[in-house]
Here is the input.
Amino acid sequence: MTLAPTDSVTLSRHTLLAACLELGLATADAEPIRIAENAIWRLPGQLVARISRPGRTRVAQREIAVANWLGSHGIPAVRPAPGLDQPVTINGRAVTIWEELPPHRDGTVSEMAHLLKALHSLPEPDFELEPLEPFGKIRTRLNQAKALDSPTSSWLHAYTDRLEEAWLQLLQTPALSTCVLHGDAWVGNVASAEDGTAYLLDLDSFTTGPREWDLTSTAVKLTSTGSITLDDYEGFCAIYGVDVTAWDGYEVLRDIRELRMTAYSARIATEHPDHPHVLREALHRVECLKGLQGQRPWHWTAVP
Here is the structure.
């Protein structure tokens, strides 16, 4: 679903023009690909610009480092445009420039399984990756979700506190292993080219932590939202070699992912009040978390 042009698009365009002027890049016929968590623009010369939310320059620097590290290990991923001193920060927003991928389609859960299996086998890089901490982003999104009424917001904050307690207890599990994580490993962050190469996208959430976190992103598509089939999920497990839903800690990670998706939809509803269906979806998700919409899967509708 594509939202109509908004002030977010205008702000993003101004940021893009300023960054490209500093980098010496042409902007004629630049067009938005997606304006969401990050703004993505197509530029002349088979380049793509990525504009972060404010205060994310350090994250963008890490994203460039991660992309180069993945390339050194032969894992297909988006590649930074060579020869540029980036990121560039414009009014607090980090702008990075990437090589445009060849013609591609959305990835599949099987392709995600192959990529995660390869990623999780790598040694940690020689630059710092912060340990996984899911709740900072959730709380930021909830604080930005002004479209929610006070009782709903209060309930979500209290629910977040309860889940964080469960998360901290889970981290004490002796058998829990740690590796490099994508951090947001759903099929929307995989692109498959016509030659069969599957590429990892959106490298800004890379972190270290339990591999189960990355696996849960696909599992909730079956158990929580019903957006993939059982055959798809069984194929994912067969390729990776693990079914995370059989793990005792799965429900905690599942609940965190559900809350994260709910907080995201609530923030998007705030940013786009002219699209009331987004707020309805956010409130529906809250009702699901409260146990008011029956058993999983809930068949949530995607928000942009």
Observations:
- DSSP finds nine helices and ten strands in the chain.
- The domain at 7-100 is CATH 3.30.200.20 (Phosphorylase Kinase; domain 1).
- The first strand starts at residue 31 and ends at 35.
